[in-house]
Design brief:
Rossmann fold; single chain; 2 domains; 8 helices; alpha+beta; 24% helix; 5-stranded antiparallel β-sheet; disordered C terminus; 357 residues; 6-stranded mixed β-sheet
């Protein structure tokens, strides 16, 4: 593909005999916002560090714009990294921090001044150049770290959980800032996070990782609406994941009741995992549902009510704008299109590599 910027080919990495990445293949397109998402220890930060040149893979190659850069040091790669601990120099002013990389490259004084002015405007900190870094808030320090990276005009910006230390409101503000910056600069972003909401908000493409394997690659919509296995479904948002039997095409038995669905090709009387999002569970009159149950808990969440409903021995998680009080008898209805069927893995850590183009 002509728009590939980075190509990771057969990358493996172990620490002290423990495999962190296992024969990973992944490419990143030019001008893409790609997020590596997964729980702690899944290999996402190791992947980022290998791309950045801070780690060398045990096997495999890192191809950058068609060139093998596997063994190049970080300062010889056309990229910059922003870490969670912003690594700013506290004894320097804001503008000295931003100019640091440009001075190493022996750029002219005027060039550096123009770049500092441009970068400060871009991160909405115009006029902050003479301030000491210690006088800035966490969010402002975050922006300076990004400004320092972008003045070098990298083709690629690596961001390792850069919003992790910020409070919720500031984190949300910075998510939108990063999207704006990416669109204005035309730089490829590779972003590492364990925060599902952050990944869904910001990304063009999400790579879900677990135990050194890629579980699924796709758009935020595809990852959320069409998870390829129970791990992805459970990790991206909340889900009801229920043991089921695929009776035949378009018909699944869950908790003793038959639910119409739209999935085909699973065979007959086959054990499957059934995934139903809480917002897709419709509460109706007991006699109108496929199964009936009782509301066991109720929490108001602002935009919706969160309820637990005990039905046929399973506690269903339900999100609804309609409130049903604790103790009320209800029926459960699910539209066939909102029932996701997936194969059960053969073992606990079975690799499930699925790529959505």
């Amino acid at each position: 593909m002509s728009d590939k910027l980075i190509d990771l080919i057969n990358i493996s990495k172990s620490y002290d005999g423990q495999v962190v990445l296992d024969e990973m293949d992944l490419y990143i397109r030019d001008n893409e916002f790609l997020t590596l998402l997964g729980p702690s220890g899944c290999g996402k930060t190791t992947t980022l560090r290998i791309i950045g040149g801070f780690e060398t893979p045990d096997t495999g190659k890192v191809i950058f714009q068609g060139k093998d850069i596997t063994n190049l040091p970080p300062n010889q790669r056309d990229l910059n990294t922003v870490f969670q601990k912003y690594a700013l120099f506290t004894h320097m002013t804001v503008e000295e921090n931003i100019a640091f990389g440009l001075r190493i490259k022996k750029k002219s004084r005027q060039y550096i001044k123009d770049k500092i002015d441009y970068a400060l405007k871009l991160v909405n900190l115009d006029g902050y150049g003479k301030r000491s870094v210690d006088s800035l808030s966490g969010g402002q320090q975050q922006r300076i770290a990004i400004a320092r990276a972008i003045v070098n005009e990298p083709k690629l910006l690596l961001l390792d959980e850069p919003l992790g230390a910020l409070d919720l409101k500031l984190r949300q503000d910075m998510q939108y800032e990063l999207i704006r910056l990416k669109n204005e600069l035309g730089i490829t972003f590779i972003y590492v996070t364990h925060d599902q909401e952050e990944a869904l908000t910001m990304s063009d493409t999400i790579v879900v990782m677990n135990q050194g394997y890629i579980q699924q690659i796709g758009s935020p919509e595809a990852i959320y609406n069409e998870p390829k296995n129970a791990f992805v479904a459970d990790f991206i948002g909340e889900s009801n994941i229920i043991d089921g039997i695929m009776i035949e095409d378009k018909l699944v038995r869950i908790l003793g009741a038959k639910f119409p669905c739209v999935d085909t090709g699973f065979g007959t009387n086959r054990p499957v995992d059934v995934v139903i999002r809480p917002e897709d569970v419709e509460l109706v009159a007991p006699e109108a549902g496929t199964i009936a149950g009782t509301v066991t808990s109720l929490i108001f969440k602002g935009v919706h009510y969160e309820m637990d409903v005990m039905a046929n021995g399973y506690e269903w998680l339900v999100h609804s704008t309609k409130m049903f009080p604790v103790g009320e008898a209800v029926g459960i209805h699910v539209d066939p299109f909102n029932i996701q069927i997936m194969n059960k893995p053969e073992s606990e850590d079975e690799e499930a590599v699925t790529i959505d183009e």
